[in-house]
Design brief:
single chain; alpha/beta; Rossmann fold; two-stranded parallel sheet; 12 helices; 42% helix
Length: 267
Amino acid sequence: MRILVTGATANVGRMVVDELLALGADDVRALTVDPARAALPPGVDVIRGSFRRPDTVTAALDGVDKVYLAPDPATAPAICRLIADAGVRHIVDMAGPKGQHWQEVEDAVEAVGVPFTHLEPGEFMVNATLWTPQIQAGDEVRDAYPDAVNAPIAQEDIAAVAARVLLGDGHEGKSYELTGPEALSRPAKVAAIGAGIGRDLRYVELTGADAVALFASLMGEYGQWYLDGLAQLTVHPQRVVPTVADLLGRPAMSYREWSERHADLFG
């Protein structure tokens, strides 16, 4: 069985390749914009290309049985048609919570009639690097909406789920909401990072114009969008679901454990 992993240059897609190999997959193909940066393991069939170059996708799909589809709403309809035309038997896509920005990916997948499995993670733990400049500068982390609560997930766990679904049976037609193992407030996340990297970090709340200015400096035009999302999480906190543990047979990675593993991200 030949499996194509798209978006294999970095982040989740690159991790999916490693997870597939660890589980014994022996015919893995990777579509990557930069093979050198992806540093894919020996034995992986590497094809240079991207969703923005459909001819490269067509070449990568030759003889493929299953596809891990990286999220790109702009190209999803066209790429999914190519996948269907190639005779692929199963698409495992990474999207996000239903009804939000990534819904376009799920809609495009379902429109072409190929059996699918939707992976729906919430916020990634790696988004904590938003605080990296402040943590590198001192022990104070300025932020907004301390009562915003969600259950962020490690990218490693998303990749592990994707690999299990690609290699397993009985997942077609299902949507898997994916969270980490604990719902955390913003101060609790800062405390977990501090514990993970061995520092005593202090959370300082900003409000109003100060909060807007901070997030604009950190995220540019997306700063207000992110703040609006935090405001929603104060009213509708994200619940923890056990999907990762159910599918993998082990607990999802905790925020503190993730911080310990990735202490280098905080300098």
